[in-house]
Design brief:
alpha/beta, 5 helices, 28% helix
């Protein structure tokens, strides 16, 4: 059973969290590169970061800037920052009330399959929200976790976007718990038109403690990835 080092860094500026992720990411890759010349390989660590960001829109490396519907001046007026990210996917929003999870894993410790990694991330969230009586689903060709797939009321509750290099992952998922989804009105979320965004609290019509949700995510992540969380 693989061990995953868990850190909860709380509300953190997106760029600071990105730099923190990238430092861990590059350290793991450096170990893997050195291991090529060693008979006895050094084990690579696995990490998982919980965080929450101030209002920010992020655009994936293959995203379309036209899916951001605000000008630079309007972003400033609303107190929203914007970053072009090196993750996959298009544009999304991060903000208070959202649980962001960044697994920085060496997939060689688990399985060398990016598709399986993405489906496993979705499965973690599907199981988490099932504890609240919600049926999370996958939508073909649209990464993330959805409710009401196949109906006129399809809505996304969790977005995913990752980067991988040498089977090491970074970035991850963003689950809307008490998120003000009005901020999604200023973008075409993930470049998908005509579908809504929702949150746990909208769906359940009651307050949901984020720490409670994090505990469920940890539980199901450990089960799905056959891993154990440790804190440093």
């Amino acid at each position: 059973m693989q061990k995953i080092q868990l850190q909860d860094i709380g509300l953190t500026d997106y760029k600071d969290a990105w730099d923190f992720q990238n430092e861990i990411f590059q350290d793991i890759i450096a170990i893997k590169l050195k291991n090529r010349d060693l008979e006895v390989k050094k084990p690579t660590p696995n990490h998982f970061i919980f965080t929450e960001h101030p209002h920010v829109y992020t655009l994936g490396k293959s995203g379309d800037i036209n899916n951001l519907l605000l000008s630079e001046e309007q972003l400033k007026e609303k107190g929203i920052t914007f970053f072009k990210s090196n993750r996959g996917g298009d544009i999304t929003y991060h903000g208070p009330g959202q649980i962001v999870g960044y697994p920085i894993l060496d997939l060689d410790n688990f399985f060398s399959d990016i598709h399986k990694f993405m489906r496993n991330l979705e499965e973690v969230i599907i199981r988490t929200i099932a504890d609240y009586g919600l049926k999370g689903e996958r939508s073909e060709g649209e990464t993330g976790v959805w409710l009401g797939v196949g109906t006129p009321f399809a809505r996304k509750i969790c977005a995913l976007g990752v980067r991988t290099s040498r089977w090491v992952t970074m970035h991850g998922f963003a689950l809307n718990v008490s998120t003000d989804i009005g901020y999604f009105d200023h973008i075409i979320p993930c470049g998908i038109r005509g579908k809504a965004v929702t949150s746990l609290e909208i769906e359940l019509d009651k307050k949901i403690p984020k720490d409670e949700v994090k505990q469920k995510i940890k539980k199901y992540f450990a089960i799905v990835f056959k891993a154990e969380f440790v804190t440093s």
